[in-house]
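Quick one, probably user error.
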């Protein structure tokens, strides 16, 4: 095993060295495939929006990552993916869920779905490990109730496949097979929204998140129900007089009305589930909803770039629900323009 791993690493090193001196011919382009058949653990009534996965800069591109050892990152020569890897994986996740038939409908942010759940993921590994001679894929996933903002379930999915030869075709095929295994587990129900039942577990056997499990009423709870009913009118009056603080799904923004505003930052947040900045523009205060901090950091947008007092330009879509609120697609700050989706 050790000998074969050393041989693989040596051959890989030779291939990378030869590539540095090779001609500048265009790289081969490879695609990924979603599993055609996914055995689902059960159906779920509801619509799912699949966000583009977050990834560090080395993965967030078209090049095929190779790790000669634990502390070194390089790229396979003369080979590339057909699109940015996070966008490509997002597309295959959607296909996998559609093939599973678990959800009522599946789409991307901005597809104007009435959203019930969001799938938020991070690509932790998508690489050729030269030390083991394997293609390795690891993706963490969180399912979020779009109405409450609660995490319904979370899991980490990983798979590995042996790489036969040092070539774009062999490496991409092994990574494709590993991804297919991960997506089969993900879309098949190892984690995800709860099935429409009163069981204490979700599809796939993972526990309900705190606050999402339906509890049958106890005798004491039934005795208190009349008291609750008598307080409903007062509670309703208090609710409608209070600004809504719940998490907004992407369906709350009108993707047909892109616009741009620019102004000084008067308030800033660089925290989960997503950052935000408040701008003064046209004599009004605007809230601009950004991306999760991990994505902003991976793409080069630092917390100091959107600090109070800095001038930023944001492009995005207006909220259908809240005046002077927008979802940002790209932001220009700190002398650079950063894509957030």
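Nope, works fine. Designed sequence:
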């Amino acid at each position: 095993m050790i000998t074969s791993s050393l041989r693989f690493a040596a051959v890989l090193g030779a291939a990378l060295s030869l590539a540095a001196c090779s001609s500048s011919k265009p790289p081969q382009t490879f695609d990924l495939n979603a599993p055609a058949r996914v055995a689902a653990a059960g159906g779920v009534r509801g619509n799912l929006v699949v966000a583009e996965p977050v990834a560090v800069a080395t993965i967030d591109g078209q090049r095929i990552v190779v790790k000669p050892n634990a502390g070194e990152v390089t790229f396979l020569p003369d080979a590339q993916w057909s699109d940015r890897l996070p966008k490509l994986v997002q597309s295959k996740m959607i296909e996998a869920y559609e093939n599973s038939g678990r959800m009522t409908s599946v789409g991307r942010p901005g597809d104007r779905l009435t959203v019930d759940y969001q799938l938020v993921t991070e690509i932790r590994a998508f690489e050729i490990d030269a030390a083991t001679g394997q293609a390795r894929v690891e993706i963490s996933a969180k399912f979020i109730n779009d109405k409450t903002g609660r995490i319904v379930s979370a899991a980490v999915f990983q798979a590995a496949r042996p790489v036969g030869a040092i070539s774009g075709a062999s490496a991409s095929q092994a990574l494709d097979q590993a991804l297919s295994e991960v997506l089969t587990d993900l879309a098949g129900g190892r984690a995800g929204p709860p099935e429409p039942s009163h069981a204490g577990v979700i599809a796939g056997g993972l526990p309900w998140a705190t606050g999402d499990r339906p509890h049958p009423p106890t005798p004491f709870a039934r005795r208190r129900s009349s008291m609750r009913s008598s307080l409903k009118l007062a509670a309703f009056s208090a609710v409608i007089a209070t600004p809504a603080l719940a998490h907004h799904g992407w369906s709350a923004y009108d993707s047909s009305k892109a616009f741009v505003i620019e102004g000084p930052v008067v308030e800033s947040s660089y925290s989960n589930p997503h950052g935000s900045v408040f701008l003064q523009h046209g004599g009004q205060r605007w809230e601009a909803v950004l991306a999760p901090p991990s994505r902003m950091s991976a793409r080069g947008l630092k917390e100091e770039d959107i600090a109070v007092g800095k001038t930023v330009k944001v492009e995005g879509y207006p909220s259908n629900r809240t005046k002077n609120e927008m979802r940002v697609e790209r932001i220009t700050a700190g002398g650079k323009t950063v894509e957030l989706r």
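The longest helix spans residues 168-190.
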